[in-house]
Design a protein that fits this description.
Membrane-bound Lytic Murein Transglycosylase D, Chain A, 2 domains, three-stranded antiparallel beta sheet, about 5% helix, about 75% strand
């Protein structure tokens, strides 16, 4: 008689949702007589969402920084916040869905209209859905032959959605008369969890564009190192960590002192942090079964889960060049941003492709702004990386220098933070039921042909015998079979 024991376990799977285009319009009142818009920098941030059936109501805020020039040639800047909302539609979304949304700027268009600055922002709204499954599978069975297996499933033991503020003092080469733009990015180099505390280490890269004391446009890229501890309930140190950081806003505090150089300032950089603590758990399941006495009806279930391979980081240097008018005196830059456009996992390495974008600022006869896009490539060596992994890569510009000649040559440093995953899919027996009895075997000896490639389990299942009985009758049998092979098996014939 069939006796069954069911096993229950929880698994999580990360599903990347399709991108949706988001259009954000902003209207900025110009404080000065704006003659020209030199650069526009946009930082969108999703703040909240409400999941419904087949859609989610997403809301957030976009920070817009605009560098302008007035009729007298003076440079000024505007800082503006605009709220946005959107209906993100996807059939996988349910009222209790857990989703991490992200908005990435695709294009920005700024125009002057009646003394105001009209900005149209096109962004890609994307999301990662964390599916939770309560799995029930057959784990033990008596009275039938079973093929047992142990599968590894991923489970999110704890998650965190919070923010941290990195504060630090920095020094530029020249005295600061007026700060025009302060733009930041974050380079996460290390993450560690222990006893409900998440520790993050890395650098904030601050691109400061300013008017120097006595006049003159200047820019400098500075590193502000950080080591921050965050309260993280449920983060124990077991399993793997996946952490995502994104700058929300940057504030500069400058104390202007009489008869001082005024080249030292304090920066406060607010960073949104999302972290997952993913653990691996083993589940004992039955993946196949048969009976020697009865027809057996099996139902199967598919267990899909995401296993984390943690994080890896890389820092490297790259270079590029652009053309600019010969009479342009380039003295500054702004809007530096590194974007990974392709991350291809290979065996033992990760091939990265990306682009550095920004704007060079010039004075003199070629007074103006020169946007640029410079590609970069790099290979990250890591023996834990394999082709079947899913990769999420973020990049930040950590160093930037330029040299003006026939062309403008740029040398820059890139920091890349990579989160690694793999989705496992396993099939197991959800339930088994005995049906009608099998007809008795007529003969005591049976000769059969086993096909090349068959395993011992497959042979035993086809004959409805135990593996031990087959090996006893065919002691030289080696499986999987390299070629078709004749087997002899013996049946026990019941006597009346």
């Amino acid at each position: 008689m069939l006796e069954k024991t069911m096993g229950n376990f929880t698994s999580n799977r990360f599903v990347t949702l399709e991108k949706s285009q988001l259009i954000i319009n902003a209207l900025l009142a110009a404080k000065d007589d704006v003659k020209e818009i030199l650069s526009v920098d946009v930082e969108p941030q999703v703040n909240s969402f409400e999941p419904l059936n087949g859609e989610a109501l997403v809301s957030g805020r976009v920070n817009v920084k605009v560098l302008t020039k007035d009729g007298e040639g003076a440079l000024n800047s505007l800082n503006y916040n605009a709220d946005f909302s959107d209906r993100y539609k996807n059939e996988l979304i349910e009222p209790n869905s857990s989703i991490a949304f992200q908005a990435d700027v695709v294009d920005t268009n700024a125009t002057l209209e009646d003394g105001a600055i009209k900005i149209e922002i096109i962004a890609d709204l994307s999301g990662t859905l964390t599916e939770t499954a309560q799995n029930s599978c057959l784990s033990r069975a008596e009275g039938i032959f079973v093929k047992e297996d142990v599968i590894t499933v991923g489970r999110v033991a704890a998650s965190l959605n919070d923010s941290m503020t990195v504060s630090g003092e920095a020094e530029v080469k020249h005295g600061i008369e007026k700060v025009l733009l302060a733009q930041s990015d974050v380079c996460l180099m290390h993450a560690e969890a222990r006893d409900n505390v998440l520790t993050l280490e890395g650098d904030c890269a601050l691109n400061l564009t300013y008017i120097a004391t006595g006049g003159g446009l200047k820019s400098q890229l500075l590193k502000i190192p950080f080591r921050e501890e965050m309260n993280a309930e449920g983060f124990s140190g077991e399993g793997e960590l996946n952490v995502y950081c994104r700058v929300k806003n940057t504030r500069i505090h400058l104390d202007v002192l009489e008869d001082a150089e005024n080249n030292v300032f304090t920066a406060e950089i607010n960073i949104a942090v999302r972290a997952l603590n993913v653990v691996e758990e083993d589940a004992e399941v039955i993946c196949d079964a048969y009976s020697s006495t009865n027809e057996l009806e099996l139902s199967f279930c598919r267990v899909a889960s995401t296993v984390s391979y943690g994080m890896t980081t890389a820092s490297f240097n790259a270079a590029g060049e652009i053309s600019a008018p010969a009479d342009a005196d380039i003295t500054g830059f702004c809007g530096l941003k590194a974007t990974v456009t392709n991350a291809k996992p290979l065996d033992g390495r990760l091939a990265l492709e990306g682009v550095l974008t920004g704007t060079l600022l010039a004075s003199g006869g070629g007074d103006g702004a020169y946007p640029f896009a410079v590609p970069f490539v790099h290979t990250v060596e890591n023996e834990d990386i394999s082709e079947n992994l899913t990769v999420a890569a973020d990049a930040a510009v950590t160093e930037f220098e330029f040299r003006q000649g026939r062309n403008v040559t740029m040398n820059f440093g890139i920091c890349v933070s990579v989160n690694l995953y793999r989705t496992n899919e396993e099939s197991c027996v959800a339930d088994a039921s005995e049906r009608e009895e099998l007809a008795e075997t007529m003969g005591a000896i049976e000769v059969c042909i086993a096909k090349a490639g068959e395993t011992l389990w497959q042979i035993a299942k086809s004959l409805r015998m135990s593996k031990e009985d087959i090996l006893a009758a065919n002691p030289e049998l080696v499986t999987p079979l390299e070629k078709d092979e004749k087997l002899v098996v013996y049946h026990c014939i019941a006597k009346d």
